[in-house]
């Protein structure tokens, strides 16, 4: 049996000092040192075996954070782990107190292909840190081999055009990680945000909707719709990659910032359809009479097909176990919601007789979050405006 932890960590704009990542936004050397300090403390607190990072502009900055976490962890171990000369050094508590470090861990970084390096117009990527290394070369999904065309139809019939994407806004990083007697496929993603997409007219310096002194409510609503459609298209690209792995019988975990809650359409695209309790009452797709319903045998087959490809948020398993009302990873304008998730395939569902493992606990690191409507909100620039989540997993039979 192997126990391990997997976490999702949106760091909020990790980049070196004096580098303008977004327009007029950069870190002074002191601010960068503060950010590295805070992130290293978070890594030290989590002590996760696998971490999916979002909003990483440079791999070098992430390396700085990991190195600082290792330095602090070594100091902590020297202070709290007794030497062999102490008769009580074998006590189990000291195994829990020690920091394992990332000296021998592997890092996979997926830069954003939309990032030209131009100051003020940078675009972040994602990364995965693994103490178990990688079983295969990491794969980056961003520029699509073939454009995805999503056709639309008018209600009642007729062509309504299509939406096409040739690349997604941020990379999806796919890694295969050996854990215990299994190799787990981990996807790390950061889907399109809810910030509206506005089109700059030819010859103009900015989109008219960006001018808040001439507030265009309808135009800004259309921008939000564009963002939502893109986010759902990106969710479908991720879902397609997930299903490919599940069809091969591989255990799957998905970490990331989904920029939507668990019950949003984009999240449901990723997790897959939840089956009905019974399909035997449902009118068949090819019904010719009112009596043409699915059989009991077909009901069993349909449910099995859906469950095989379904993912479940680790948060949901936690809520079931703890009877806790709410988990949140963001707080803004009085709204507390969970838009960061760790999804688990049926291989980790305790209700599945063929499960290879399960989640034993779930941790949320959100004490640093401040509501964006409060005066202290600028603190989030140097910390993160996201909480971190971590699933405590077991592979193999329990002791």
Supply the key terms:
399 residues; alpha+beta; Deoxyribonuclease I, Chain A; six-stranded mixed β-sheet; 27% helix
Describe the structure.
This protein is an alpha+beta fold and 399 residues long. The chain has a single domain (2-272, 309-395), classed as 4-Layer Sandwich (Deoxyribonuclease I, Chain A). It has 7 helices and 14 strands. Strand 7 (182-190), helix 4 (217-247) and strand 8 form a beta-alpha-beta unit. Helix 1 crosses helix 2 and helix 4 (217-247) runs parallel beside helix 5 (265-271). The chain is globular and about 85 Å long. It starts with a strand and ends with a strand.
Number of helices: 7
**Order of helical and strand elements:** EHEHHEEEEEHEHHEHEEEEE
Percentage beta strand: 25-35%
The largest sheet is: 6 strands, mixed
The CATH class, by name, is Alpha Beta
Number of distinct beta strands: 14
Fraction of helical residues: 25-40%
CATH superfamily label: Endonuclease/exonuclease/phosphatase
Q: Structural class of the helices, strands and pairings?
A: alpha+beta
Q: What strand line-up does the widest sheet have? A: 3-4-2-1-14-13
Q: Give the termini distance in whole angstroms.
A: 7 Å
Mean pLDDT: 90
CATH architecture: 4-Layer Sandwich
Q: Report Rg.
A: 23 Å
Total separate domains: 1
**The CATH topology is what?**
Deoxyribonuclease I, Chain A
């Amino acid at each position: 049996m192997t126990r391990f932890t997997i976490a999702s960590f949106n760091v909020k704009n990790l980049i070196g000092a004096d580098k303008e990542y977004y327009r007029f936004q950069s870190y002074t050397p002191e601010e960068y040192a503060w950010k590295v300090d805070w992130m290293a403390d978070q890594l030290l607190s989590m002590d996760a075996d696998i971490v999916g990072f979002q909003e990483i502009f440079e791999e070098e900055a992430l390396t700085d954070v990991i190195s600082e976490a290792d330095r602090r962890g070594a100091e902590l171990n020297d202070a709290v782990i007794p030497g062999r000369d102490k008769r009580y050094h074998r006590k189990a508590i000291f195994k829990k107190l020690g920091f394992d470090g990332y000296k021998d861990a592997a890092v996979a970084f997926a830069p954003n292909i939309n990032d030209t390096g131009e100051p003020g117009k940078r675009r972040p990527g994602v990364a995965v840190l693994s103490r178990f290394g990688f079983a295969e070369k990491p794969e980056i999904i961003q520029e699509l081999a073939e454009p995805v065309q999503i056709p639309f139809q008018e209600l009642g019939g007729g062509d309504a055009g299509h939406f096409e994407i040739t690349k997604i806004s941020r990379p999806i990083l796919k890694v295969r990680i050996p854990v215990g007697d299994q190799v787990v496929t981990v996807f790390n993603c950061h889907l399109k945000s809810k910030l509206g997409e506005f089109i700059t007219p030819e010859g103009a310096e900015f989109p008219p909707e960006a001018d808040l002194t001439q507030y265009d409510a309808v135009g800004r609503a259309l921008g939000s719709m564009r963002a939502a459609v893109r986010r759902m298209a990106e969710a479908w690209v991720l879902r397609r990659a997930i299903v490919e792995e599940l069809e091969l019988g591989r255990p799957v975990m998905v970490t990331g910032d989904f920029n939507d809650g668990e019950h949003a359409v984009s999240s449901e695209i990723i997790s897959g359809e939840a089956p009905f309790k019974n399909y035997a009452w449902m009118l068949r797709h090819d019904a010719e009479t009112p009596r043409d319903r699915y059989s009991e045998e077909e009901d069993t087959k349909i449910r099995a097909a859906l469950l095989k490809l379904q993912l479940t948020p680790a948060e949901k398993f936690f809520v079931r176990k703890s009877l806790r009302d709410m988990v949140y990873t963001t707080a803004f304008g009085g709204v507390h919601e969970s838009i960061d998730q760790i999804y688990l395939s049926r291989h980790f569902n305790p209700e599945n007789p063929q499960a290879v493992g399960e989640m034993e606990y779930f941790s949320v690191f959100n004490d640093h979050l401040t509501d964006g409507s409060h005066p202290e909100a600028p603190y989030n620039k140097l910390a993160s405006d996201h909480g971190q989540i971590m699933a405590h997993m077991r592979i193999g039979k329990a002791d």
